[in-house]
Amino acid sequence: MEPASGTASIEAVHLLTVGPFPRLLAEELTARLSREVGVPCRLLDEAAEIKPQILPERAQVHADDLLRQLEALPIEKGTKLVGVTLLDIAIPIFTFVFGRSRLGGPATLVSLARLKPEFYGMPADPAVTVRRGVAEILHEVGHNLELKHCRNYSCLMYFSHDVETVDLRGLSYCSSCAPLLPAGFLATGRRRF
Amino acid sequence: MTADESNAQQPALLIVDDEPIVQQSLADWFRSDGYDVDSAGSAKEALRKVAEGRYDIALVDIKMPGMDGLELQSRLAEVAPDLTIIMITAFASVDSAVKALKAGAYDYVTKPFDPDELSHLVRRAVEHRSLRSENIRLKESLEAIAGSPTIIGASPAMRRVLELVGAVSETDATVLIRGESGTGKELVARAVHNQSPRRYNPMVVVNCGALAEGVLESELFGHEKGAFTGAQYRHKGKFEMADGGTIFLDEIGAITKKVQVELLRVLEDKVVTRVGGQTPIPIDFRVIAATNQDLEAMVEADDFREDLFWRINVFTIEIPPLRERSGDIPLLAEHFLGQFCLAMNRRASTITPEAIEVLSAYSWPGNVRELENAIERAIVVGKECVVHSEDLPVRVSGGADREVPGSSLADIERTHIHNTLVGMGWNISKAAEALGVDRGTLYNKIKKYGLQRPPDGAG
Questions:
Q1: Which end of chain A has less Cβ packing within 10 Å, N or C?
Q2: What are A70-98's pLDDT values in tens digits?
C-alpha cells in the first residue's frame, strides 16, 4: 500500500480511532456511517505511529499536524481514511475545529469532543453524538471528494461553526452537491434531498 | 452551490496581518464561508490595496511591525471612510482594541479566534453595512418622494406635459426638459423619476450651472484622495451616488466643452473613472437633463457638442411658461396658499377674486417660482386669513399705476385692463380670455380708455 493521492473516486471508507475511544462507540459510528454510504465502511485497529501533538499553552491537539500524520499512513487506493477522536482539536488561530480535511485529500479528521451534548452541559446522549459524528464525517469526506462548502443551510456541505448548525443541516447532501459525488458513494435510498 | 448563488456578489474582506499563517488560515476559512477574500502582510500593502480595490470589511491586526494596526486604522478612515474595520488583537492588547473602538472600529476579536464568534462578528458587520446603506438609500428615496410637490395644472399645455411624463416614465430613455427658469423643470424630472421603475433608488440632482469646471468634474465623477490639492479624502461622484437611480443634470447648457467630452463618454459607456483614479466603475443610471438655453443655437455656435446634444435630446418635454397657461394661475395660487398655511401653521386662507384677477393678469417672468414667492409674501404680510391684492408684491399688483389708482369704477377697470394686457404681452386673445370678455369687447375698452401698446422693448 502506498500513500494515496487525492481522487474523486471512492471504494471504501476506513475509520481509525485516535486516542482513547470506547470500542462500542467506534463500532456504532461505523455501523451508522455504513447505513448512509453505499461503499463498505470498516473500523481499523489503532495505529501506534499516530502521536497527537498538543498545541503550546492549550490543552488541545494540533488538528493540522494530526491530519498530516493520518495522510502519511498507507491508505489503500480508492479508500478514504477517517480519523475519529474524542480529543479536543484546534489549530493555532482557532479555539477549536470539529474536523479537518483537504479538498481531494485522502484522509479526514473528526473530533467528537465538542459534538457530545455533555460538552454543553446537556445530558449525555450517545445517539446524538453518533449522529453528529456521522454528519461531520460525511461533511469532511465530502471535501475529500472535492465538494466545497454549500450555501444551502440544510445541506451536509454547509459551513458550520457550531453544534446547532451541525444539527440543523441534517444528514443529506443537497440536490446541487449530491450529483457531484462519485457514483455509488451514497447508499441506495439515501439520495433524498 | 447553485449558479445563482455563486454569481451573487459576496462581501469583500481584506485580512491584514504580518503572520502568513494567520493570513492564509483566515483567508481559506472565510473563502469557505463564501466571502471574497484578499490579504495584506503589512499596513503599507493594505493601504495600497484599499486605494486600488473595493473592500467591505478589513480585519486588521493591531500588532504589526512598522505601521501598527491603530495607525493603519486612522489612515484607512481617510482613504476609505466607509470601510468597516474589525481589529484583531491578543488578550494582552485589549486596551489597544478599546482605543481602536473609540477611534471608530466596528469591533475587535481576540486571537486565537472562536470560529463561531468570528463568523457571527463578520456576518453582523456585513448586515450592519447593508442596513446602513439601505438606510441611506431609503432616506434619499423618502426625501425624493416627500420633497416632490404635485404638478398642478389643468391647462391643455400642462395636461400634455403630464401625458409625456406618464409615457416616458416607464421607459429608461434619456429625457431633456426644456423651459424657462422657474417653470418647474426639476419638479417634472422628479415626477418622471418617481413614476419610473427606479423610484426606490435615489434621484441625484446636479446643478451644472452652479459649479466651476474643476469642481463639476469632481462632483460628477468623484475623485481619489490626492487627485488634486485639497483632495484629502476619496469622494464618490454624483454618478456613483445615482447608481440604480436617476441623475438629474440641471442647466446642462452651462457645462464647459471639456466636461462635455467626459460627460458624453460616461453617458455612452455607463462607466465612470474618478478624477485621479484608474479603476473604471460601472454604474447603472438614467439621465434626465434640463436647460433654459437654446441648445440648438449653442450647437450652431460650437458652444455645445452636437454628439452630446443628440445623446441627451432623446425625449423632450417642453414646459410652457406660466404666462402661456394663465388659466392654471388660480389653481397654483390656491395650492401654494394651502402649502404655506400648513408650513406656517396659519388657519386656512382664501384668495379674494380681485387678488386672483391681479395674479392672472401679471406676466410672471419668473414663472411658477415667482408665483410661489408672491403667495408666500402675501401670507407673511397679510393680517387676515384672506389674501388681498394689496398683499401681493407691487410688481405683481400693478406697480405705480396701482399705487395711485383712481377711485371710480372706470379708473379701476382701466387699470385692470391695462395690467392684464401688459401681463399677457399685449396678446389680445389671451388678455380677453383672462378678463372673461370677447376680443371685440376688449378692443372697445382699449379704445375707450385710450390704452396704447408700448413700443417693443419698453415692456
A1: N
A2: 999 999 989 999 999 999 999 989 999 99
Within a domain: A3: no
Beta-bridge mates of residue A16: A83
CB-nearest to B25 from A91, A96, A148 is A91
* Nearest-CA distance B1 → chain A (Å): 5
CATH number of the domain at B7-137, out of 3.30.1490.150, 3.20.20.70, 3.40.50.2300, 3.40.50.720?
A: 3.40.50.2300
- Supply the pLDDT for residue B92: 63
CB B104 within 8 A of CB B73: yes
Phi/psi for B104 (5° steps) reads 110, 5
Higher-scoring residue by pLDDT: A38, B398: A38
| CA neighbours closer than 13 Å in the CB half-sphere of residue A4 | 23
At residue A36, the pLDDT reads 92
Arithmetic mean of pLDDT over chain A: 90
pLDDT band for A5, please (50, 70, 90 cuts): very low
Query: CATH homologous superfamily of domain B150-318?
Result: P-loop containing nucleotide triphosphate hydrolases (3.40.50.300)
Residues of B with CB under 8 A from a CB of A: 1-2, 5, 21-22, 25-26, 29, 32-34, 111-116, 118-119
Those residues whose C-beta lies under 8 Å from the C-beta of residue B335, and which sit 6 or more positions away, are B150, B152
pLDDT for position A18: 96
pLDDT of residue B143: 60
* Low-confidence stretches of chain B (pLDDT beneath 70): 1-9, 91-92, 140-149, 231-232, 348, 383-385, 398-408, 454-459
Choose among B203, B202, B234: nearest CA to B221: B234
Residue B32 has its nearest CB partner, among A90, A93, A149, at: A149
Q: How far is B135 from chain A (nearest CA, A)?
A: 27
- CB–CB of A95 and B22 under 8 A? no
In CATH, what number is assigned to the domain containing residue A45? 3.40.390.10
* Closest C-alpha among B296, B315, B208, B204 to residue B258: B208
How many domains does chain A divide into?
1
CATH 3.50.7.10 fits B323-449, yes or no: no
Grid cell in block for residue B449 = 380708455
